[in-house]
Amino acid sequence: MTTSLAHKRVAILATNGFEQSELFHPLNALKEANVKVDIISLEKGSIKGWDEDNWGESIKVDLTLQEAKSENYDALVLPGGLFNPDTLRTSNAAIAFIKDFFADEKQRPVAAVCHGPWLLIEAGIVKGRNLTSYPSIQTDLRNAGANWQDAQVLIDGQIITSRNPDDLPAFSEQIIKALSA
After folding, report:
1. What is the distance between the alpha carbons of residues 54 and 36, in angstroms, rounded to a whole number?
2. Is the domain defined by 9-180 classed in CATH 3.40.50.2000?
3. Catalytic residue among 37, 75, 112, 114, which?
């Protein structure tokens, strides 16, 4: 990959129970593209992934939400899984961090996969948007005013969404493409 993204910085917001592949695939793709990536979470230490039907690998938290400043990032990635976004959507600090990416004119990419769009619903930014997700939350997205579609990847303005781990190569590619624009 090119070194032109070496000046870019991306936040991955996650907590215990993130879908392992949905954090590690974009993380690795971004690192291969020379992007600086920070894992942001609710607490210091490390967080543990969920791998199919059991606990998976842990990853070190770089910054807590209290330490992180959204203006320091060029993009935000929201991995899915069931536990991760369900926990984060009850955190005022997590929702405020997400909302900050939509509060300025920079149009910084916000990428959510699987159940990650639950966080976009909670942030109140899905109305009128074309989004995809894991099929089980399509009704939640529609009820919040989104135009849900069954697609590998959808891009609507600064929002990038995907359905599941099978879509991760295309999802990661679109994040890198958005950072390159």
Report:
1. 29
2. no
3. 114
